């Protein structure tokens, strides 16, 4: 993070607890800077970068110091003395698009013998960058210090010359999307191979020929499409009414992604007692009423741990597949940007549906059926990027997202929006020039493309492409 001081050794291993010795007092602590800390940090920068290294004349302040979005982290001794610091801020003016830079990493001359101050500040900056939703985090560091960043897992990008001194652009590999994909979707092909989720793509495969890995499954010999989703048990305990609502929402979204008109639902409900069951059922009923889709029957069991799954049935004579895309297709996101984070699920669940009128819900739900894209998938557990990765995988392609073009609510960071469950959001792919129908209150925008290869890249305004998903998502391959 340009410019910085000489190498700092990794901190010694803390062994006091394991050995039974009295706990050692930390030699420094990294914290978010107070106004007083920031003043001390600026003074330290001037002492090192102007006085000691001669990289600047008079002062090293720049426009980033005036950016109200910046964050400054400092290392402080137990006595309160600031002995190091670093700042991070968005790399672009205007709305934060999830591209951040670290800079002005500095360690006081007398503190370099403490060991690990620089490394601790870099690690803390990485954690804070992910906290604010960054999906790209970079720094320009003096060439002699690039090895420190590489030891900390940063990637070397290119050589630079700044302030007349050799520098290297380094990039921290933000793995947020890949971690989500690995946790939610990567095991599927192996787990479901015995059910026809492996190499078999014939009529006996999951979903049937051409629909493996889709949100719903066409019922052979009929115009019916069936979809089934379960709710995470912890959600039933924390917010049972919302869990009942979401059980309807996610299943009707699955039908909507295939262009099917919903006709009814079945539920399988388990609860520890009648009170819990009643709250879950009230959420089911409210959602079924809002969308105008009846619950036709199901099964209920009491005296057991809470569980809920819903099966939804819809009709269409020509289901829209997730695997209908091809390289060169335009990717579009159609999403409801109204609403806000569900209480207790900030950064994970965006509630855009619970206050919508039924006619708006149905207008959004019929978007794919009326528009007939070549491929479609609703954004669910894997988030926007992971869902696009599944659509691309089913289509036998890779994908790129133009980060700045993605429709996004102002209250959501890029990192959160790209990885959350967004209420109503459809990813579609079609030949260039395809014109979608009106999506009711949802916002629709072209924001990427399918490309040759595999995985998902994020394309930034400077033309750089960073990898968000390295390879296929589920391992099923093309549908």
UniProtKB/TrEMBL annotation:
Q: Read off the InterPro entries from this record.
A: Acyl_CoA_acyltransferase (IPR016181), GNAT_dom (IPR000182), MSMEG_0567/sll0787_C (IPR023911), MSMEG_0567_GNAT (IPR024035), PurM-like_C_dom (IPR010918), PurM-like_C_sf (IPR036676), PurM-like_N (IPR016188), PurM-like_N_sf (IPR036921)
The UniProt entry, under CDD domains, shows: NAT_SF
Which GO-annotated molecular functions does the record name? Answer: acyltransferase activity, transferring groups other than amino-acyl groups; thiamine-phosphate kinase activity
Record's keyword annotation contains ATP-binding: no
User: Which Gene3D superfamilies does the UniProt record give?
Assistant: 3.40.630.30, PurM-like C-terminal domain, PurM-like, N-terminal domain
Organism equals Kineococcus radiotolerans
Q: What is this protein called?
A: Putative N-acetyltransferase (TIGR04045 family)
For the N-acetyltransferase domain, which residue ranges apply? Answer: 28-175
GO BP term, pick one? thiamine biosynthetic process
Q: Recite the UniProt keywords alphabetically.
A: Transferase
List the PANTHER family hit by this protein, alphabetically: THIAMINE-MONOPHOSPHATE KINASE (PTHR30270:SF0)
């Amino acid at each position: 993070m340009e410019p910085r001081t000489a190498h700092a050794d990794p901190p010694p291993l803390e062994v006091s607890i394991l050995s039974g010795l009295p706990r050692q007092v930390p030699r420094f602590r990294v914290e978010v800077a107070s106004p007083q800390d920031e003043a001390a940090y600026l003074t330290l920068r001037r002492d090192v970068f102007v006085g000691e290294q001669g990289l600047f004349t008079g002062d090293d302040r720049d426009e980033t110091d005036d950016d109200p979005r910046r964050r400054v982290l400092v290392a402080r001794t137990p006595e309160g003395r600031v002995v190091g610091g670093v700042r991070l801020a968005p790399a672009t003016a205007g709305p934060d698009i999830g591209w951040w830079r670290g800079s002005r990493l500095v360690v006081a001359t007398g503190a370099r013998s403490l060991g690990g101050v620089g490394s601790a500040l870099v690690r803390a900056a990485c954690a804070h960058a992910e906290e604010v939703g960054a999906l790209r985090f970079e720094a320009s560091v003096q060439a002699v210090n690039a090895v420190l960043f590489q030891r900390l897992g940063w990637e070397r990008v290119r050589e630079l010359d700044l302030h007349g001194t050799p520098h290297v652009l380094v990039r921290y590999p933000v793995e947020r999307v890949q971690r989500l994909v690995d946790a939610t979707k990567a095991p599927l092909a192996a787990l479901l191979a015995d059910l026809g989720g492996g190499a078999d793509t014939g009529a006996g495969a999951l979903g049937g020929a051409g629909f493996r890995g889709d949100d719903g499954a066409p019922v052979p010999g009929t115009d019916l499409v069936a979809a089934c989703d379960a709710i995470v048990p912890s959600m039933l305990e924390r917010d049972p009414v919302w869990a009942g609502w979401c059980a309807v929402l996610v299943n009707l979204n699955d039908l909507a992604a295939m262009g099917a008109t919903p006709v009814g639902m079945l539920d399988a409900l388990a609860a520890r007692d009648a009170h819990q069951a009643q709250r879950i059922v009230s959420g089911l009923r409210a959602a079924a009423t809002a969308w105008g889709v009846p619950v036709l029957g199901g099964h209920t069991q009491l005296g057991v741990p809470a569980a809920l799954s819903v099966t939804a049935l819809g009709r269409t004579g020509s289901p829209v597949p997730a695997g209908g895309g091809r390289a060169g297709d335009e990717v579009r996101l159609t999403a409801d940007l109204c609403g806000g984070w569900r209480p207790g699920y900030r950064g994970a669940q965006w509630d855009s549906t619970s206050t919508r009128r039924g006619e708006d819900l149905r207008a959004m739900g019929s978007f794919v059926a009326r528009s007939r894209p070549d491929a479609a998938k609703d954004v669910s557990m894997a988030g926007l990027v992971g869902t696009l990765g599944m659509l691309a995988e089913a289509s036998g392609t890779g994908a790129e997202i133009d980060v700045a073009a993605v429709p996004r609510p102002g209250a959501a960071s890029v990192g959160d929006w790209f990885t959350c469950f967004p209420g109503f959001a459809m990813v579609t792919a079609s030949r260039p020039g395809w014109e979608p129908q009106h999506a009711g209150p949802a916002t629709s925008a072209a924001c990427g493309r399918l490309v040759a290869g595999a995985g998902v890249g994020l394309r930034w305004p400077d033309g750089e492409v960073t990898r968000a998903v390295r390879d296929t998502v589920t391992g099923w391959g093309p549908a």
